Amino acid sequence: MSAKPIPGRTTAAAEGDVVVLLLGLRINHFWALHQWIPVVLAMPRMLRELARDEGRGLLGHVLLTASPRTYYVVQYWESKEKLYAYASAPDMLHHRVWAIINRKEHAGKVRGHVGLWHESYIVPEGSYESIYADMPPAGLAAATGVLPLEARGRRAADRLRHRSGPEAA
């Protein structure tokens, strides 16, 4: 991602539905390093795994911190089917990590040292819009590309009316 701002106003070049996955981690007990460090390190490994294979469907991601104990990842996916396929693929790291977590939970070895959550959103075309002013590509635009604002409309209502399929004509 370029750190150089694009002058003026732009919008994301997203077409069709947008799939957004929010993932979060909260360190509940800092002193339990052996419990939360492996979990914290798993996410960058999964992101590298996905970056090596664009066909898996991850379009882009943003890593965020909310506090010294809370971390988030915002991911943009090509489709919900590709998200589901990655999550359940036995040859991928996500599947192995969740198997370990599930085994520990069933054995009563999860002690609440680290909290995990995720939220998935399938946003239909016509239900999202974006605007960036004097910004490098960020968020959805970093994942899907950037267009001049006029390509989709100067007002949010115009951008929300955008359609990419045959009905667009």
Reconstruct the topology from this structure.
Elements lengths: L5 E7 L5 E10 L5 H20 L5 E10 L2 E8 L2 H9 L4 H14 L7 E10 L8 E4 L3 H6 L1 E3 L7 H5 L9
Antiparallel strand pairs: 1-6, 1-7, 2-4, 2-5, 3-4
What would you say this structure looks like, in words?
With 169 residues, the protein is of the alpha+beta class. It is built from five helices and seven strands, in the order ββαββααββαβα. It has a four-stranded antiparallel beta sheet. Strands 6-1-7 form a three-stranded antiparallel beta sheet. The radius of gyration is 19 Å and the shape is elongated. The two termini are 33 Å apart.
In brief:
This protein is of the alpha+beta class and 169 residues long. Helix content is 32%, strand content 31%.
Descriptive tags:
169 residues, three-stranded antiparallel β-sheet, 5 helices, 31% strand, four-stranded antiparallel β-sheet, 32% helix, alpha+beta, 7 strands, elongated
Strand percentage: 25-35%
H and E order:
EEHEEHHEEHEH
Please report the number of helical segments.
5
Shape annotation: elongated
The main sheet comes to:
4 strands, antiparallel
Look at the structure and give the mean pLDDT. 92
Distance between the termini: 33 Å
Strands, total number = 7
Helix content: 25-40%
CA gyration radius, whole angstroms:
19 Å
Q: Specify the structural class.
A: alpha+beta
The low-pLDDT segments are none
